[in-house]
């Protein structure tokens, strides 16, 4: 009979992933060695290999695990059958709060996903695309006119631009934190959404009308 895993196996594995994510976020995936991961964990390198076959396996678990958690947040919010504005607000706030606890994994996802092999990278990116699409659909429910213009996805990407890069300027020991900024981001986006103008047909723009440029986003 095969011996089962100890009760602390998953806990230890999670701690190793957390330390590896912090190292990757600080030094980059190529600049981090398994020796450094072992030292940060206070474990021997053979012990690390008991949990992960190599450094690449760490990268896969960090990136795939993080985006899978984001998908789970989307599913949790959607199961609540909320009104469109409240659903989008909750999505924004839950994501910002999640980033507070996973800033290292999030940085690895945004900066080191290019080091994944093609199959793993596409799987992770497909999950990212599904998350973006959920936000785009939530935007389109509030502003149905943005869907046909392809603007709902662009607006979702602008929203992610606010949420995704907060870790670059929001100090962990500062006056503001992710918890307090979550409703601010939601207020800013939801208050501005009604003012967004959809693009007019080429050659039919009225004088003085602002041009809204859409971008081809493939998150």
Span between N and C termini? 45 Å
CATH fold annotation of the domain at 56-169 and 177-195: Tetracycline Repressor, domain 2
Rg, nearest Å:
20 Å
Distinct helical segment count: 10
Note the topology:
Elements: H1 9-27, H2 34-41, H3 45-51, H4 55-78, H5 84-101, H6 103-112, H7 118-142, H8 145-148, H9 151-164, H10 178-192
Helix pairs in contact: 1-2, 1-4, 1-6, 4-5, 4-6, 4-7, 5-7, 5-10, 7-9
Features:
disordered C terminus; mainly alpha; Tetracycline Repressor, domain 2; 219 residues; 0% strand; 66% helix
Can you describe what's shown?
Helices cover 66% and strands 0% of the residues. It is mainly alpha-helical and 219 residues long. The protein has a domain at 56-169 and 177-195: Tetracycline Repressor, domain 2 (Orthogonal Bundle), CATH 1.10.357. The longest helix has 25 residues, at 118-142.
In short, what is this structure?
With about 220 residues, this protein is mainly alpha-helical.
């Amino acid at each position: 009979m095969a011996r089962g895993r100890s009760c602390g196996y998953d806990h230890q594995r999670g701690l190793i992933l957390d330390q590896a994510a912090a190292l990757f976020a600080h030094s980059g995936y190529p600049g981090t060695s398994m020796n450094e991961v072992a030292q940060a964990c206070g474990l021997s390198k053979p012990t690390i290999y008991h949990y992960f076959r190599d450094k690449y396996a760490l990268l896969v678990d960090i990136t795939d695990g993080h985006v899978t958690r984001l998908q789970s947040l989307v599913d949790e919010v959607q199961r609540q059958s909320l009104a469109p504005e409240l659903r989008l607000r909750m999505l924004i706030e839950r994501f910002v709060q999640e980033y507070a606890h996973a800033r290292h994994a999030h940085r690895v996802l945004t900066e080191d996903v290019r080091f994944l092999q093609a199959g793993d990278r596409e799987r992770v990116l497909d999950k990212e695309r599904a998350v973006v699409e959920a936000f785009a659909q939530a935007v389109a429910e509030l502003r149905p006119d943005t869907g046909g213009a392809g603007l709902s996805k662009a607006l979702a990407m602008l929203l992610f631009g606010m949420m995704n890069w907060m870790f670059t300027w929001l100090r962990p020991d500062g006056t503001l934190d992710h918890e307090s900024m979550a409703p601010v981001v939601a207020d800013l986006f939801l208050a501005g959404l009604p003012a967004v103008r959809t693009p007019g047909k080429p050659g039919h723009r009225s004088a003085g009308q602002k041009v809204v440029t859409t971008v081809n986003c493939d998150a």
